[in-house]
Amino acid sequence: MRTVSFPVTIVTGNPGEKPRLAMQQLCWPARCACCGAPNEGSTLDLRHDVHASAGDVFQEVTTTGIPVYPLAWRLPCCRSCIKHQVAPAGIPTTALLVGAFLLWAAMGYLLFLAGLAYNALAIAAFVVAGLLLGFAACKLYAVLESWSRRKVESYMKPTCTASGVPVSIRSDLLHVEFTFQNDTFGDEFRAMNQLGG
Ligand SMILES: [Zn+2]
Ligand SMILES: [Zn+2]
After folding, report:
1. CB hemisphere CA count around 178 (13 angstroms)
2. Measured in angstroms, how far is the CA atom of residue 54 from the centroid of ligand 2?
3. Is the pLDDT higher at 38 or at 173?
4. How far does the centroid of ligand 1 lie from the alpha carbon of residue 156, in Å?
5. Which of 1, 46, 87, 143 has most Cβ atoms within 10 angstroms of its Cβ?
6. 146 and 170, same structural domain?
């Protein structure tokens, strides 16, 4: 991992103008930030909000009501690495549970139609069936989960450095700090932006 930090300043414009966050233009290495392969021109949108301090005059407010200075960059990333970074398709947990429940309710209705609603054995069987259906839904969930994880992993190459976004960003009102999973990328990035050390 390589961490590269940039100084930032809050620039207050003319009266009536909102202040903005000033930061140097960044240069990006001509390689994928994840696997380090030569760049093909594809990029990943990178966003980061610098949180303004409370009471500060701020640039924008997020949906959660936090005042922020929004920043955005385009991170070089090869196409196959973009694939393994997009979140795997969510497992339809709700659909799974609702499906199992409806199946169980349908069984109950069939028992009722068959005139077995007051039959102790049938009711016991119905309860057991409910437990089995719940168990099956859990099993199915586990299978779907490992399937979606394997799908993400199948896009990864031996040279990949992270299954998710290969850079994390932290900030305060004086610095924006990038931490790269790929050391070569991080070193080049540091050199290109003339930070030395
Ligand atoms: Zn890559
Ligand atoms: Zn990768």
Report:
1. 28
2. 38
3. 38
4. 8
5. 46
6. no
- The number of folded domains in the chain is 2
d(CA 190, CA 13): 30
User: Are residues 146 and 170 located together in one domain of the fold?
Assistant: no
123 has pLDDT over 50: yes
Instruction: Say if 72 falls within a structural domain.
Output: yes
Question: Could you say which ligand is closest to the alpha carbon of residue 162?
Answer: 2
Ligand at minimal distance from the CA of 85 is: 2
Window from 33-42, 50-59, 176-185 with minimum mean pLDDT? 50-59
Query: Within this chain, do residues 22 and 59 fall inside the same structural domain, yes or no?
Result: yes
Q: How far is the CA of 52 from the centre of ligand 2 (A)?
A: 33
Pairwise pLDDT comparison (63 vs 72), residue with the higher score = 72
Query: pTM for the complete prediction?
Result: 0.67
| Residue 157 Cα to ligand 1 middle (Å) | 8
- For residue 87, give the DSSP letter: P
Dump pLDDT digits (tens) for 6-32.
Answer: 999 888 777 777 777 889 999 999 999
Give the other-Cβ count within 10 Å of 91's Cβ. Answer: 16
- Rounded to an integer, what distance in angstroms lies between the CA atom of residue 117 and that of residue 61? 58
| Alpha helices in the chain, H assignment, sequence order | 79-85, 93-113, 120-154, 183-192
For residue 57, pLDDT beyond 60 = no
